[in-house]
Amino acid sequence: MNEQVLSLRLMKVGEKVPQDARLADIGSDHAYLPTFLMLNKKISYAVAGEVVKGPYESAKRQVAKNLLSEKIMVRLANGLAAIQEEDQIDTITIAGMGGALIRQILESGREKGQLKKTETLILQPNIGERTLREWLVLNGYGIVEEEILEENDKIYEIIVAEPMDSVHYSEKELLFGPVLLQNKTETFIKKWQREVKAKERVLGDLQKAQVVPQEKIKEVEEQLAWIKGVLA
């Protein structure tokens, strides 16, 4: 993967970015995504934010090599602190992290006024999609698009969210994804078949415990029933 050829996962994230967006890519690593999008004339301006010094330096070199230093600002900063008022960011991408960490970045940005709640959020959690959807609902974001894909035997979900006046999802929609539930692709089925096996193992371990955690058993049994119902 480089700035010319993205991984399937990042390519799909990039496809969700609106034409001529002013993009903040948080946790940008080598700045592959904003560089690719700028070279392909998909975005008009970008911030590549990175909290770790090594990837930050790599991103700076990548942007400079492609003569894009005036169009892509590479900043060493924690989360949404990479964004400045004058950037006029309208789209934020956060990809390749756990859902809990993405949630933490968004919440910190909200508390500090770095998240204006006018931006489109394009999020690709590696795990923990449900906790991310819960945060979106709590903070007035509706899920307008979702995609599930497989790459190198790993399954990823992409969530696109926009500010909305009234947002409500059921517990099942938070778990499976309200949009993904409407179109159960082969990859969707594969993911949840794997989850059935994983949860059945967890349930077996819980039932063997010396102190049986009844509440946890009930929770896992309920989720198993939901999954099997969706797969039926």
UniProtKB/TrEMBL annotation:
It comes from Enterococcus alcedinis. This is SAM-dependent methyltransferase. Transmembrane segments: none annotated. One of its GO terms (molecular function) is tRNA (adenine(22)-N1)-methyltransferase activity. The keyword Transferase applies. Pfam families: TrmK. It comes from the Bacteria. GO terms for biological process: methylation. The lineage of its organism: Bacteria, Bacillati, Bacillota, Bacilli, Lactobacillales.
